Amino acid sequence: MSEDKQPGANSAPGKPDGKPDGKPRTMRKARVRARRWPAVLAGTTTAVIAAGAVAAATVLPGNPATAIVTGAPVVLPVGNTVNNCVAPTRLLTGTAVGTDPQYSPDSSSSTSTLNALLLSTPGGVLPGASLNSLDGSGAPLETLTPSPSATATPAAGLAKLNAVNLGATSVSADTVLNAAPVGGQRAVVSGAVVVSTPDGDLQGLAAANCQEPSNDLWLAGASTTVGRTAVLNVVNSSQTAATINLDLYGSDGPIQAAGGKGLLIPAGKSRAIVLAGLAPNQNQLSMRLKSTGGPVTATIQQSVLRGLTAGGVDYLQPVEAPSNGQVITGVQVQAPADAAKISGQSGYADATAAVEVTIPGNSDAVVEVKVFGPGGQAALPNGGVVTAKAGSVTEVPLAGLPAGTYTLSLSSDTPLTATARMVDSTKPGEPVDFAYSPAAARVGDNQLVTLPKGQSSLLSFAAGGAHGSVQLVPVKANGDLGKAATVDLNGGTTVVVDPVKLVGADAVGLVVSATGDAVYAAQVLSSAKSAGIAVLPFPSTTANGHSVNVVLGY
Q: What's the pTM?
């Protein structure tokens, strides 16, 4: 991260060349310049503004021209932790385009469940938390915990962590996880929505983490060609209206879409935008979503229909903002022979594993893609080095890799963002499913990960340096924490673990903490009886918050 540079010292008084003007010092006209004083707004337990006031003094020999009065620190209250949880997948009616589309009834056999966890303070105090409707009206849909008493404060130095589990709650619309702070500490809460549809046009498995709202999001992996439907869903759970603007990038460069500017999302509402109405016939489509006013969350419901055969469904979740390096893990690849049989069918050319790279800047980029499996680095057929055009999306095939789960390390001389596509299938002629694993942030401390029931789950880990380790503490259904397990990671490899074998079948979630070099992780869900795959990146904790440098001046 870059640091703000402070202004340098003022130049010596006098002429422009810096030489004295010959007048006695006491006779020179005094000039008072307002100083600029930095203030840091910290999103941890408190935020303090420290500002300096400048007061003019009499200009007399021996007296300073200015006096500095230090303002008293002002402590800002810590707000609630808010996570928006996505609505179930929905089928468009006909070929509707534009915003606010119509949907047909959901499949009667589809199941949409929300799994959520709430972590206590180190002293064992559970924050008040509930699951609410998007507009906040009416009673909570579910109450995880009531608000603690006013005297309940964290006890320093005690290791009494526990949790509350809200498991497999059926949901039918956008919902909001809301948790209040305790003793000046933000609550740690996490949730994920899993949708399983065994038949119909949206057959497949889709999953998405509940997101904390933001004013700047990047999404990638969409497609708007024939048979592909991409619907952007934007949710505003705040009490302030939001206006969003979309910057779109396709395989041939930036896309100018007037309909993607100035879209209003009222407070407590959501809005759906059919992306084919803004950017039709795009094989690869990514975007930057910027919001003014209220912060929002966003996902893209991407689905494929190959003739009359379901081609899969997924939620495209936000990817990491562009930088010169990105890491993607949890990328499952089928055996080359099996993958070739599926992609060789008519209309199945995109049913292959690949990574989609977006270069939002004005300069072409030389991108190197390194692939790491359980046995170390694996070679890509083209060497993994490609030239990606500025302002566009470039697809890099992962075909030819042996079957397994991989981590991708991408580096570029220009900032990029990326997401990886993977495909699950049974045999030619049968429905297939796909999933996208987005570039994600490194694992931190005390992150909560849900383990959805009813689906097979594998955890994929990779170290960004020479060595890292991750501690996994199981959360049981009654909220008790079990015995921790540690996974050691060597650089240049991917480690895949089965959470059931590692921490036991009674675990409904994990408290995850990483040490050593940067650790990256993802959870891969799959269906046992049919083609079905989905990826849940490890959600970042909001307990430590973020810091923003703010300069006050006049």
A: 0.84
